């Protein structure tokens, strides 16, 4: 995995490290399908917005760049909202107000301002794809954890995203499961996110401890070279 991809998926993950976009991350991750739907929507908006911002950067005045970026994001989100309403109506109703609220997602504005406004459209598209993917994977992980603990199922109501074929994806992992109410309530989202952040921090600490002996060995050899 290249440094470019690893940085966006793991090392500087928008959800686990930068803590951006927590509103949709926590609010609509009660099931895996809801999380997947919002994750795909976020990826689409980030990629399209990054490309548009990159394309207009030569003619954008610095004084108006932020209002212009907001206008672009709002236009893309509105188009996405209308598309979901037309082709994924039930999922659109389930996600509700959180689709138009993508406009206020700090993740999208941050990538537009910090990266897309300074780079060409192709590298900006790649940045948006992997930043959005990192965000979506965290959302999916939270959705799977909450659905499994809260309902004992996986990919319930998959037909909302995949049509009739989605019924074949629905799994009952724990039969006759009474459910764990906290998992499907808002506190469950915070607990799931906390576990993922803790797991990432433990991974980072483990990697740092592994690198220390190697660095010390290189430092002791340096005077002899």
Automatic annotation (TrEMBL):
Compartments where found: Cell inner membrane; Endomembrane system
E.C. number(s) listed in UniProt: 7.-.-.-
Chief site of localization: membrane
Transmembrane segments: 35-56, 68-88, 94-116, 128-145, 177-199
This protein's record includes keyword GTP-binding: no
Annotated keywords: Cell inner membrane, Cell membrane, Electron transport, Membrane, Translocase, Transmembrane, Transmembrane helix, Transport
Topology versus the membrane: Multi-pass membrane protein
Family (UniProt): Belongs to the NqrDE/RnfAE family.
Function (record text): Part of a membrane-bound complex that couples electron transfer with translocation of ions across the membrane.
Summary of subunit composition and partner proteins: The complex is composed of six subunits: RnfA, RnfB, RnfC, RnfD, RnfE and RnfG.
Protein name as it appears in the record: Ion-translocating oxidoreductase complex subunit E
